[in-house]
Amino acid sequence: MSVPLALGRINEAAEAAERCTTLDPEGAAGPLLSGCAAVREGRCAEGVRAFARAHELEPAPRGPIANLLFTTFYRDDLSAEAVLETHSSWSRRLAEIAPEPGPAPWEGAGHLAFGSFNRLPKVSAGTLRAWAAVLEAVPSARFVMKALGFADAAVRAAYRERFRALGVAAGRTTLEPPTLGLEAVLAEYSRIDVALDTRPYNGACTTCEVLWRGCRLLTGRAGPPTPAPGGG
Prior knowledge:
Layout: H1 2-6, H2 10-23, H3 29-40, H4 44-57, H5 63-73, H6 80-97, H7 105-109, E1 113-116, H8 125-137, E2 142-146, H9 153-165, E3 173-176, H10 182-188, E4 194-196, H11 205-212, E5 216-218
Helix pairs in contact: 2-3, 3-4, 3-5, 4-5, 5-6
């Protein structure tokens, strides 16, 4: 569903959202995709309503919350106080469920572990080259990457080949689908020592999670802000 959005085909995304809602009226996929399409066209108020509905239907995934936070920040009709409260409520939720930071992963593994849990549409060719350069500079390091697309073996194989073409051996990368549930997601950061950001579209809620867990973050200059297709 996120492919039309990633390619800028808003009408196709809106049609897909309608089909999702028809097939599964109580599922979050339809309103979530509809909200993303609305935001891409500048209809932020409509996007907020759609994201709020998606979160109401399916509170566990972080995607609806991530996009809701993004959209409220860029709405002209909300006061600064309202935006701050929306973000603060997200932070309070993190504080309630975040596990305590543990020992650094390298202390047990004997090598640094870099990682990224950002969505694949944000992983540009330049991002991959930058990550490969980091791994080349630290030959003993490993890289953990979690994304929805990695539930598909063909996608995992394609990314291993992309890394191989950049000089990163397959044995140094771990490619996995995302962990479900925000509390479990936060716990997953105990596997990496340094998170690597994407560019030109930087992480949003993913970056907040990294910093909340006390994990180091290597980032760069941000590009124009945009909600990730299909979630945060």
